[in-house]
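Run folding on both entries below.
>entry_1
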Amino acid sequence: MRISKLSIKNFRGVAKADLIFPSHAVLIGDNNTGKSTVLEALDLVLGPDRAHRMPPVDEHDFFQGKYILSVPEPKPAAVAAANDADVAAEEAEQVAELVEETAPVIRIDATVCDLSDEQKARFFANVEWWDDEQGCVLEQPSAEQIATASPCIRVSFIGWYDVEEDDFSGETFFTKTDDDGLRQSFRKKDKQICGFLYLRTLRTGSRALSLERGSLLDIILRLQEARPKLWEDSLEALSSLQLSDGVEGGLGEVLESVNTALKKYVPKEWGAQPQLRVSNLTREHLRKVVTAFMSTGEGEHLAPYYRQGTGTINMLVLALLSQIAAGKQNVIFAMEEPEIAIPPYAQKQIVNEVRKLSSQTIFTSHSPYVIEEFGVEGTIPLSRDAAGVLVQRKIVLPASIKPKFYRQNFRTVFCEGLLSRRVLLAEGATEAIAFPAVARRLSKLRPGEFKTLESLGVCTLDAGSESKIIAMAGLYRDLGKEVICACDAQDAAVTANMEAALDVVLMHGEKGFEKMVLAGTTVAAMERYIASITWPEALKAQFPNPNADLANAMQTYLSKYKGEGVAADFLVQCEFEEIPEWIREACLAIQKFCVGEEDEANPPAPVEANT
């Protein structure tokens, strides 16, 4: 069983979305893109407990908080009288039609396919057929189509504001209607058979081993149809447990004095013999207070499990999930950010174990160790525009970027770009290290004028060479990213191709970044830097006194140790006027592009090369 398609309308920050899911997927994107909203939408339509909360939705669940129909105010009488009568009548008719429209509603539609025999038998009247190639439910399929299609059901959730009740309501139902046009409710028991579990890692862990309704332990008990007798036995034991120590001057003596005073003012029928007990003696109260204790370290001391480390709690959640999956055999897991407080090897373990335990997994993540486990096919980049339309994109590797190169360099090169809003492609490691560092330095020296690249949502990646910049730019622009590059001067043809492939091209005139840095800085900055470092033994034979041949000594040093980021070390110790003008102007060009000071249809021109 798996979710093959999800449509969302007017839910939280998403005005509209149509998503197709593979068997196992990880949703990626910038913060506030809508990844968690997708999982919350799935929980509303398929979660056994979410839609049964009262109310199931509230004001903040509606897109832009709009849940009441807005009717335009009529024009003032003087203006209406001056207008043509036919025009006024037409406007009145338009207002009347608007009034007849329904108020904004939340609508979530999900298609669940690959049904088991048990599910097909239960949902028999609502079973349809899903075609993976077309990505849709087949209308009146032929026998040949059914042979290759997957049995599925379509279910929907609608949430709305009830004006008469002055409250919010919601219902879940099968999208397919019966012959009379009536829709059938998709009840809690139906949802339990579908087996959708949504795990908000931090919040789930805080009550994983409690007996609260909907906790993981409670789910396991229900799946195994366990009927623990602890309620009656525990309530009876607690009813005889009194908190009175019997010591003179203690709690028991105080309670007895209260009882004596009480007898002076009220008859015993009103109340007598006050006692303190550890529980309200109801099942619901026990559900809230009963919790598991675990030993910490090698000692015998027991502490509540939620006092353990966050990583331990999350691994405990994984252990409980394995129990749930073993009990159901057909589970869809949706999980937010499994990497929280978990080391990389454990992140991979969680992903792979959960995938083995379930028929489908849908994760959200910002961790390269999690994302790389899904490959290109299972990674779903999401982006959302200003109108609230959530778009699903597909990673397509250019011909010049081989799948092996992508896998080998995923953590160090590609992942950060996939997770960012904007990408700065540098032609080498020197530029990739230097640009973020010098931008932070400029922001510190002139905070009112310069911003860091991080604050602009720009990540800097080493493209490896100028020849790979265009290919990588195509990869990221196809995913909706804004792409900038920084490189040495190129010939006219390459420059034209770069300007067509990128949003901003930053190009200097020197043959090498180090030459540009030294040509644009000052002697004082170089002398100060030489004095601050230990001159390498490998260069002492050639430059026994580097200050005597300062320019050549610095050029040789920066070139020989460029892989260690020494150009960035030099730049961050410079004062404002000592930082090359080209770098300062390049940082301003990036900043203007990112903050929208330039017209989007006319982005900044390439920075002029130094001559």
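>entry_2
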Amino acid sequence: MNFNSKAALPDVETLSLEEQVAQMFVIRASGYLFDHQIRYPEWEPTAAHLKHLIANLGVGGVLLPVGNSGDLILRTQQLQSWSKIPLLLASDIEEGTGQRFDGATWFPPPMALGAIAGKDAVKAEGYAEAMGAFTAQEAVALGFNWVLAPVVDVNNNPDNPVINVRSFGETPATVSRLASAFIRGAQQWPVLTTAKHFPGHGDTAVDSHLELPVLPHSSDRLAEIELPPFAAAIAAGVDAVMSAHLVIKCWDAEKPATLSHQILTGQLREKLGFNGLIVTDALVMGAIANEYGPNEAPILALEAGADILLMPLDPANAIKAVCDAVAAGRISPERIRASVERIWQAKRKIYEQSAQNHPTTQESALSLLATPAAISASANILQDSMQAGGSLPLPVDKKDKLRNLIILDDILLSDVLGHHAPAIDFPKQLGYQLRICDRNSDFLLKDLETGDSHPTLLQIFIRGNPFRSSAQVTEAALAWFKKLLQSGQLQALVVYGSPYALKQLSADLPKEITYVFSYGQTIPAQALALETLFGHSFSLSQTF
């Protein structure tokens, strides 16, 4: 069943309580077609179990985290074919559809637009609108109808490990303007958009995927910094708002926002006047899962005012628990019905738009992916947000024993490095010898104690990501950086990802040392950074 089917949604009244409750759940599943490709079996059910949850229990939606674009077209069609009621199909594609799905366009992180806004606000706004439009276009091509973006948190804490470069910037004005532009762009296509994470996750140094952050700010401070981007997103017509797993003491000293009636209903619904979908952040995250049971958390979120319960640990039992809560009088049937009506309103909106610009064949869908215009927009954002200093281009003497030292958090999790990656291949063409260090290879630090001297190109891949305990440069990277400086071996520095990491390192970087910074970590970002560093273009090697 395609989402642009002409079939009308059934009247909510005709659904059983169990069917209504199931519509409020969006579960996570593998983006790949086969069970042996499942990466996170604790969160991603097998095909048989997934089909049961959709076809028999009637869950309302599925979140797909990663996959291949070609396969995704088949995958989303498969999921819709299992469902009696069209599904909401969602993904966290904050940096373009290619961030999650190979083959589509991967944009630089939103903070790159914030950097451009500091120089040219109008240009940045245009980029943000284009990014929203291309993201939505490619999402629709793959079969998605719900974009879990934009992030509207104001990242005013450099130590924030979970938001970081996912934010458009450090001021409410910048975030408001760029997030609204992203929403306008996405509205050109039949997808829902989502402002997250209410009431603001930007000023935390704790990752809510692991622990529960606590914000001590006053109501006045929240009104000044955290809330304006949400108000702007609502004014721009955002379809959904995602809650944050954090405690806001001035509003509710006990419950996190996701489970707080004072916050979701009192602040978001009543004070900000938001009438769209309220969706929880993932209920499997440590900030919720570690404190509340897998069945109690969904009930508390519904009592707080949530319409959609995202990624419960045990969907079948969570649905039953909510139904039991209704039977016991803890939650009223009217409360459930109100949320399902909002879900129906969102689905009808997608229906109306889909008839006009939804791809009808696989060929037409593929034609919407990674178009020259989208790739050009991404490249322009990379170019205009890049920073460089020192003497450019960097002179290279192939007679020297050159070293290309790449440091990243975990190479096993990297999808931007390989023999074909410019960060590896381009220096190789100039005679650099490759060394790679991550948290799994700290033994390489023994090289610091040797007497060998090598002019070293130091490339660091670092950015805040969910499930990171820190947003700062790793100890290994700092140790190498300091040793190379002290020994006079540091030839040049390239940082990919976090401007906070660059700031941390540049405090000790002599002015004569050449550096390049890119917000992106992708293949195009690496190519642009290194071609800027060395002053000429490269072609990828044909042999490795």
